[in-house]
Amino acid sequence: MRYLSTRDNTLRYTAAEAIKQGLSRDGGLFLPEELPCLSEEQLKRMQAMSYQDRAVEVMSLFLEDYSRDELKAFADAAYGPDRFDDAAVAPVRTLDGSTHCLELWHGPTSAFKDMALQMLPHLLYASLKKTGEDKTVCILVATSGDTGKAALEGFRDVDHTKIMVFYPKDGVSAIQKLQMVTQEGANVGVCSVVGNFDDAQTGVKRIFSDEAIRVKLLERGYFLSSANSINWGRVLPQIVYYVSVWCDLARDGKIKEGEKLNICVPTGNFGNILSAYYAKRMGVPIGKLICASNKNDVLTEFLRTGVYDRNRTFHTPMSPSMDILISSNLERLLYTLSGGNDAEVRGYMEQLNREGRYQVREEILAQVRDLFWAGSCGEEETTETIRRYYTEKGYLIDTHTAVAAHVLEQYRAETGDKGIAVFASTASPYKFCNHVLRAIGEEPAGDGVELIAQLQAATGVKAPWRLAELGSKAVRFTQSTEKQDMERVVLDYLQ
């Protein structure tokens, strides 16, 4: 299977080349030429498999230049008991007869990003060998909170790699910041950016497309790649857990063979819900894809109207990992729904860069509306949902998960569709202790890591041990930069 760019589909790359490069040099995103299909027999067979073996089954369909033995070794290492605190890796919690929660935060950084970023370093390191690369790869990451720590942890001390993470200075939680600035490893760097996530992400994209920087770094023995969800090696492992959740529900008799499962995902950069879309396209019985936004609801507006407009007030709500106005992975969906029209996609992206908005044609909008439903959740609703799930269901959730739970309820109320549904839980409640404490009626006694002990004492819910140990770690990184100076930070780092 070969890979193409969303902005120039005449180019073809192997899977290893696409993963190594991360972003096409024309600014486009890599996509497989075609999506493989999973038969009913394959889905039935996977019901009895471990999560690791399911990962091999799905990923091998896309990675023809990687052997099954390689992928098995990678999956065992990425999702083993020393990395994930639940043997199921992505366990499903049943809340009532038709509502389930897919917990994606049992990895080393307590966020769903671990599901991909524990796998990506293995894929990338192997790609260097497969392509005969003798230079050191530097992973550039822009994060709204969770990707940064997950990438730092995944690439820590991996041979022939360095990683630099940029995060918005005042746009992450205290726990998220502490996770990053205390990161261990000889090959890691962290820098805050004065601005929001989109400023950081735009800066990283600008560095990738700067030919002068590319040449200068090559002379120093480096090349750049990405661990953001623009890298296909990030999107692919996420497809696995949407295959897996259906298999788990079918195995346990909670969904009938062939019965469709509605999926609700708290969404920022569109990579997570895009992975659910790909699982649906591959043959997993998935019904409506429900996109849940916080107050930064640019995606909700687009999915309802076909107009993407980032020219709006940027809010800083209690679910910061969703605070994104430029959702990069939407480009992949547009490519598919346009029938592979790279010129059309390129035009939309150029217009977005130039004017801050674009509008898709009616034929694309019709497909979008058929596939997706979108809603948003304000701050009061987020707080109320956390409170209600804790007091009524005995289930503690974080702010992002609450957005998804609320929007799923919106969807059911507005459409009358009461079918079996799962909402994605993308972070441990312990990553956002202050908001969770207030939601359950407790006044936070501080604003940092000390709140972990307070939330644990108040609820009796055990905190992930790695978060509980944060208070004893030394701060290593204090650097901050203006958004226009991010290039200098990278060049200084890669001397």
Structural notes for this entry:
By secondary structure, the protein is an alpha/beta fold. The protein has a domain at 87-111 and 235-431: Rossmann fold (3-Layer(aba) Sandwich). It contains 22 helices and 16 strands. It has helices at 15-21, 40-46, 51-60, 68-78, 114-117, 120-130, 146-155, 174-181, 197-208, 211-219, 232-251, 271-281, 298-305, 330-337, 342-355, 362-371, 379-393, 399-415, 433-439, 450-459, 465-468, 486-493, and strands at 3-5, 8-13, 30-32, 92-96, 99-103, 136-142, 161-168, 188-194, 222-226, 261-266, 286-293, 307-309, 357-359, 372-376, 421-425, 480-482. The strands form four sheets. A six-stranded mixed sheet has the order 4-5-15-10-11-14, sandwiched between helices. The chain has a five-stranded parallel sheet with strand order 9-6-7-8-16, with helices on both faces. The protein has a three-stranded antiparallel sheet with strand order 2-1-3. Helix 12 links the parallel strand 10 and strand 11 (286-293). The relative contact order is 0.14. The mean pLDDT is 95.
Nutshell version of this structure?
With 495 residues, the chain is of the alpha/beta class. 45% of the residues lie in helices and 17% in strands. It has helices at 15-21, 40-46, 51-60, 68-78, 114-117, 120-130, 146-155, 174-181, 197-208, 211-219, 232-251, 271-281, 298-305, 330-337, 342-355, 362-371, 379-393, 399-415, 433-439, 450-459, 465-468, 486-493; strands at residues 3-5, 8-13, 30-32, 92-96, 99-103, 136-142, 161-168, 188-194, 222-226, 261-266, 286-293, 307-309, 357-359, 372-376, 421-425, 480-482.
